Amino acid sequence: MIGGLKRLIRGETDVDFVGRARTWAIVSGLVILISLLAILIRQFNFSLEFEGGSALTVPIETDADVARFNDALGEAGVEGTVQLRTTPGGEREALVRTKETDEVVLARLQREVAGAGGQLTPSGEPDINAVSRTTIGPSWGAQITNKAVRGLIVFLVLVSLYISVRFEPKMAVGALAALAHDLIATAGIYAIVGFEVSPATVIALLTLMGYSLYDTVVVFDRVNENQAVLTSSSRTTYSEVVNRSLNEVLMRSINTSISTVLPIAGLLFVGVFLFGAVTLKDLALAMFVGSIVGTYSSIFVAAPILAKLKEREPQYQALRRRAEGKVPAAAGARTRRATPPKPEPDKDEGVRSEAAPAGEAAPAGQAAPSRRVPAAPTGPPRPPRPPRKRRGKRKRR
Q1: The domain that contains 84 carries what CATH number?
Q2: How far apart are CA 216 and CA 297, in angstroms?
Q3: Bridge partners (DSSP) listed for residue 46
Q4: ∠ Cα 338 344 350 (to 5°)
Q5: Domain finish residue from 117, 136, 155
Q6: Which residue from 291, 287, 260, 262 is spatially nearest to 205, judged by alpha carbons?
Q7: What is the CB neighbour count within 10 angstroms for residue 130?
Q8: Would the N or C end of the chain have less CB density within 10 A of its end CB?
Q9: Residues 6+ apart with CB under 8 A from 360
Q10: pLDDT at 379
């Protein structure tokens, strides 16, 4: 285990991320399916800014529970929701939300809520001044929703253009798939838990998308560096390049995630649950969940999708065929050793060996004798040389 941790820290791991793409696809598909079902069945708990209506907040001086405030809503003749919470000072208060109604009905509801919370005047009448009221029209909520959707669309378009120009369009497809995975998973967790979706949540989601994109770009940048070594004569596939790149940046992604999640966790658990800073809850929760999901998607969603898309290109298909047909080095060495050496030619040119005649038997335990015969001449016959004239002795004078 310690050895594996050391290899992880040095970036020397050898995890087959692309080879297990089917496993990651099943896990991501289940997460998306559960998230979509939660969004459709449980739906979102939108804040007042999105739905419009009125919110009444009253301190609780008695042991009143949710049922008493529901009775107050019934007495006023309106429908709404009740939430009991604790302030940073340790006091209890009730938040009553209702859809937009006229002023007369709201004044009656304010009176009933003050009485349910035990806020009374010296004469024993409900103290309506102890109830704080906020009213937002539905048109303002619709305007906020439209702006959030437009901001999301513009962000996705700019991201696609940037990655397509900086890297290539197939990497933009992988990055957008990872972003969609992060948004759906985070939204599904909000729907399952039932946390309120407010403008702070939208801001956190946009921040989350930027963080997820950063981690994905880090991975793609390393892939882009490593794929430069691929040539037409390489025996390495594109999937192997992606695997090597992911193993090299794996520790960097983990360190970035830990350094991001720890401060957010402190903001969420210490600030919200211990000190009661409920205004930070929407922002901290979305960033906490999104940071974890974003790290997962950049490694297990974006990179495998990129590898599968690139493997469909003809040049990388040729690389894969070449890599699958190569012979291991050890097997090649054994084959060369098993090959018998070539017989050397006779040193005496023009002489060849001929087996002994069939009538001559070889002695027992010895090979049959052979005799050496001149080699047959090759080429046209040479013309006969003219006779050499003999010179006589010169006479002395």
Answers
A1: 3.30.70.260
A2: 8
A3: 197
A4: 155
A5: 136
A6: 287
A7: 18
A8: C
A9: 368, 369
A10: 52
What pLDDT is recorded for position 107? 85
Together in a domain, 103 and 188: no
Query: Nearest Cα to 174, choosing from 305, 309, 307?
Result: 305
Q: How far is CA 133 from CA 56, 106, 113, 241, 347, in A?
A: 5, 9, 11, 60, 115
Global model pTM greater than 0.70:
no
Strands 45-46 and 196-197, how do they pair?
Answer: parallel
Q: How many CA atoms lie within 13 A of 184 on its CB side?
A: 18
What is the rounded CA–CA span in Å between residue 397 and residue 394?
9
Any domain includes 204: yes
Which DSSP string do the residues of 133-190 spell out, in sequence order? EEEE-HHHHHHHHHHHHHHHHHHHHHHHHHHHHHT-HHHHHHHHHHHHHHHHHHHHHH
Task: At 17, give phi and psi (nearest 5°).
Answer: -70, -45
* 71 Cβ neighbours under 8 A, 6+ residues apart: 116
**Does residue 182 share a domain with residue 122?**
no
Burial class (CB in 10 A: 0-12, 13-18, 19+), 385: exposed
299, 305, 307, 311: CA torsion to nearest 10: 170
Can you give the residue range of the structural domain that contains 13? 7-46+139-323
Among the listed residues 313, 329, 308, the one whose alpha carbon sits nearest the alpha carbon of residue 230: 313
DSSP 126: B
In a shared domain, residues 300 and 262: yes
Identify whether residues 22 and 112 lie together within a single domain. no
3-state secondary structure of 54: strand
Question: Does residue 330 lie in a domain region?
Answer: no
Domain count, the chain: 2
Whichever domain contains 257, its CATH number is: 1.20.1640.10
Residue 152 has pLDDT above 70, yes or no: yes
